[in-house]
Amino acid sequence: MKLDYLLYAFENVKHKKMRSMLTVLSILIGIMAIFALVSFGQGLSSYINDLSTQMGTDKIMIYAKGVGAPGTDDTFKILKSEIDFVGKVRGISEITGMYASVVEVEFNKQKKYAYSVGLSQGKEKAMIEEMINIKVDEGRDLKEGDKMKVVLGDNYRIPEKIFKKPVKVGDIIKVNGVDVQVVGFYEPIGNPQDDAQVYFTIEGMETLLPAKKDRYDYAIARVNPDMNPQEVAKRAAEKLRKYKGQKEGQEDFYIQTFEQMIETFTTIFNVLNGVLVLIALISLIVAAVNIANTMYTAVLERTREIGIMKAVGAKNFDIAMMFLFEAGLLGAVGGALGIFMGYLIARLGGFIAANAGYSLLYPIFPAWLIIGCLLFSFFVGALSGLFPAIQASKLKPVDALRYE
Amino acid sequence: MRKMKESKTKKTIIKLENVWKIYTMGHVEVPALRGLDIEIKEGEFVALMGPSGSGKSTSMNMVGCLDIPTKGRIFLAGKNISHMTESELAQIRGRKIGFIFQQFNLIPTLTALENVALPMIFQNTTKEQRMERAEELLNLVGLGDRINHKPSEMSGGQQQRVAIARSLANDPDVILADEPTGNLDSKTGDSVIDFLTNLHITKGKTIIMVTHDAHVAESAERIELLKDGRIVSTKKGKHHKKHE
User: Fold this and answer.
1) Going by C-beta distance under 8 Å and a sequence separation of 6 or more, which residues neighbour residue A384?
2) Nearest CB to A316: which of B87, B94, B109?
3) A313–B90: do the CB atoms touch at under 8 Å?
4) Do A16 and A136 share a domain, yes or no?
5) Band of the pLDDT at B154, cuts 50, 70, 90?
6) At residue B1, does pLDDT exceed 50?
7) I need a labelling partner for A1 at 20 to 30 A (CA). Which of A150, A265, B45, B138 fits?
8) How many interchain CB pairs under 8 A, A with B?
9) Do A69 and A23 share a domain, yes or no?
10) pLDDT in tens, A246-304
11) Does A389 fall in a domain?
């Protein structure tokens, strides 16, 4: 029985090819956009999830207030005394300050600007490694006492990416005019900023930029496993504020748990993605209006057919179901094609992003997204066809048969 | 079957009692039927004849359960249908009545086979049953080689034969033919009438034919003449083959 409605709907959709195609196209565009956007959103949130699981939830970040990334604005710093103070706050088990600075890198007579960090190689190294979350996969890692030695991001060893000639382990490069030796390379991270970083030891950075000594750009701390990181972060912020004699709301630093940081980022991303999905939803509403229009036309055109079917025994319900199925079919076909096109676009988008260095922007296609889009498009179609279907079912057989 | 039909106690299949149908056009009430009384027995072949405006179409709508009367009562197989809902009427139509229209009224997007199978979709049948019966019926009307043709690929006479096959789909008691020859040339029209007569004789179907054509009406057993919304005279058909 149900299958027969579908067959009739299918015949009619096939019969009016051009009109069906245009209607299908309108829903295709909406579903395509939604599918592609959500698949990217899912990819990014799965990346972030992986990231926060790997980095652990026991980290607290302390930032000096400033514009842009740490190290790009020298107005505010975190002093060594302040770091020592926070390190004594109850619940914090270890803490280390870090330097960050924009430096000029010269290799083979080519000059480039890059982001550089100075990281402790001492007892806090394990904590830093958890945060950086990448490994040296060529040459060796930095070790305590290394001064004029650096480890570079992945992009330096790729020809034409940063420098024309790839940098090799053992090469000498100039950083702010000073010769340093490259001892290793980190594995790729997936975005062009991080993959172009220059890594020093704390001592190395202090030698290169003596003015920085004991004036850190940011710090990372670990919370005791039996304490709530958020509470510890709050307590540390309050104590540091009093220590620095600053009023609430006028602090020149931020203390956040790593999770909060990720949350902030995720929220921004979700809002952005949400706005885009909303726009795609508006296009779906337009598509729904289009389907309703198509179905109203179909009811008018087939008034006589409706009369015939009623004459040979079709109940109002049968007629309504036929038109609902037809509208749903238009929706589902548009949805299926939209998913296919959305998949291609997301794949292409992921490919372009990876080529541009943003390999962390990759789409994923969970089964629920595919099934959800398909069901959603069917229901959007059926819902749009609801009123035309009811109108069709209410036609009187006598009037419908007389309709020319 | 034949024995029962010829017995004196034929059952009444359709009965209209003082049926009125009044259409309201703007503020004017136009009565199309003014107290129509008809009784049709099982296995009869009756022609409802009359000029245009006599209430032919309205009376056919009443007899065919396509509409309900403003006043009066209609019985189909002893059941009062005058106050039934749309869906109840649809069920009864589907099972008890087969329609043949002047315009053939086939669904243009469906093949001959699917058109014949259509009335069975609305009853509880399986697809195999439907397709088997539809093919059988198309063979019966001599279109066994046209089952996959669409209406637009067939002549008027062929289309009307598909419509006849469709009217028989649910093996109804009554075949209701509304000007069945109206859109056909006289030769093709005659063959359609022959076919109906044949159904009447061999299958014992009750046939009610609405026509304005006196020649066509003469093929019926009984001719009821309509004028101004009621029956004005009754006579026997001259050419009815059963009596020859």
Assistant:
1) A288, A289, A290, A291, A292, A295, A327, A331
2) B87
3) yes
4) no
5) very high
6) no
7) B138
8) 68
9) no
10) 888 888 888 888 888 788 878 888 888 889 889 888 988 998 999 999 999 989 988 99
11) yes
Number of structural domains in chain A = 2
Q: Is residue A300 included in any domain, yes or no?
A: yes
Last residue of a domain, one of A224, A250, A277: A224
Question: Is residue A355 a part of any domain in this protein?
Answer: yes
One domain for residues A96 and A188 = yes
The pLDDT tens digits for B190-231 are 989 999 999 999 988 999 999 988 888 999 999 999 999 899
Residue owning tokens 């940063």: A162
How many residues in total does chain B contain?
244
Q: Is residue B22 part of a domain?
A: no
**pTM reported for the whole predicted model:** 0.74
pLDDT band (50, 70, 90) for residue B170: very high
| Domain CATH code at residue B171 | 3.40.50.300
Place of tokens 């101004």: B228
Check whether A80 has a pLDDT greater than 80: yes
B 146-175 residues with CB < 8 A to A: 166, 169-170
Give the A-side interface with B, CB within 8 Å: 1, 3-4, 8, 11-12, 15, 304-305, 307-318, 396-398, 401
Q: List the domain range (segments joined by +) for residue B132.
A: 43-65+85-243
CB-nearest to B61 from A305, A312, A398 is A398
- Domain range enclosing A386: 2-51+263-402
Q: Are residues A64 and A209 in the same domain?
A: yes
The Cβ-side half-sphere exposure at B71, using a 13 Å CA radius, reads 10
Burial call A91-130: b when 16+ CB within 10 Å, e when fewer: bbeebbbbbbbebebbbeeeeeebbbbbbbbeebbebbeb
Question: Domain tally for chain B?
Answer: 1
CB nearest B90 (choices: A15, A308, A315): A315
Q: How far apart are CA B120 and CA A322, in angstroms?
A: 15
Query: Residue A210 corresponds to which tokens in the numbers above?
Result: 């003596």
Residues 6+ apart with CB under 8 A from A352: none
Q: B66, B123, B150, B170: best mutation site toward chain A, by most A Cβ within 10 Å?
A: B66
- Cβ separation of B122 and A313 shorter than 8 Å? yes
